[in-house]
Amino acid sequence: MMTAMSNTPAPAGQSSALLVLLRARTFIALILVTVFFSVFAPNFLSAANLVIMSKHVAPNAFLAIGMTFVIVSGGIDLSVGSIVGLCGMVAGYLVLNGIDLGLGWSIQFNTLEICLMVVAVGVLIAAYIASRTPLGRYIYAVGGNERAAGLSGVKVNRVKYFVYMFSGLCGALVGIIISSQLVAAHPATGDTFELNAIAAAVLGGTSMAGGRGRIGGTIIGAFVIGVLSDGLVMMGVSSFWQTVIKGLVIIAAVVIDQAQQRVQARVALQAQAAIQ
């Protein structure tokens, strides 16, 4: 008598195709949200709105780069929003008043004009550190297995100091950039920015468990969050529901990431069985 086998693993071809889709989920999500808002939000794809959106995406992308390093190392940084607000206030004060050196001498500061260039340089530096330096390998090692990394000679505490310092530096620069864009400073400027950074990193394939993530994926994730934020504003969605939606996006990204890991393990087992 034949019995149904509901737990039969999917064929190798289906598992591989599903894995490709899961790995490309961020790019697919970007296409879907762009199409959705181009239909339901008036003038979403206008030249003026695209310029404004790029100015919004750039700081969020820069903040998400620092957050990527922190999450890959197995941590989380919820202070970046406060750092943005604090450094924005300090930058605004320095631009307005400068530094009085006494005897009639003072140092005056100007606002930062080509923010996109600053972000581009930051992306290149971060990508180089992550993929081309021993420090980058140490960050992934600490996130993958902190104890094993320490036993193999990695200075775990120094790696953690670096990732949080780098994240703080990104937050400080974002505060300066936003104050320059707005020509104003307010302590609440960075509210919910940490949520945007986490969402962008996780959407881009960074595992909340640590040990896995890519700077390129984070940049695409930042575009998804930027398009989502601007589209919701253009549709008149309140800030409360925007926060709820971003939270749901993070939850969905974590669930999909877990699914991807299971599919990867299944494909690896099927490949090993085929060799044997």
What does this structure look like?
With 276 residues, the chain is mainly α. The chain has helices spanning 12-23, 25-40, 47-72, 80-97, 115-132, 134-144, 146-151, 156-182, 193-203, 215-234, 239-275, and strands spanning 99-102, 105-107. It is globular. Mean pLDDT is 84; it is low at 1-6.
Please give the share of residues in helix.
over 70%
Q: Which stretches of 5+ consecutive residues score pLDDT under 50?
A: 1-6
- The ordered string of helix (H) and strand (E) elements is HHHHEEHHHHHHH
Number of helices: 11
Number of domains: 1
Class by alpha and beta content:
mainly alpha
Radius of gyration (CA) equals 22 Å
Strand order of the largest sheet: 1-2
Report the β-strand fraction as a percent range: under 5%
Oligomer: single chain
Layout: helices, strands, pairs:
Blueprint: H1 12-23, H2 25-40, H3 47-72, H4 80-97, E1 99-102, E2 105-107, H5 115-132, H6 134-144, H7 146-151, H8 156-182, H9 193-203, H10 215-234, H11 239-275
Antiparallel strand pairs: 1-2
Helix pairs in contact: 1-11, 2-10, 3-5, 3-8, 3-9, 3-10, 4-8, 5-6, 6-8, 9-10, 9-11
Concise overview:
This protein has 276 residues and is mainly α. The protein has eleven helices and two strands, in the order H-H-H-H-E-E-H-H-H-H-H-H-H. The chain has one domain.
Short descriptors:
3% strand, mainly alpha, two-stranded antiparallel sheet, disordered N terminus
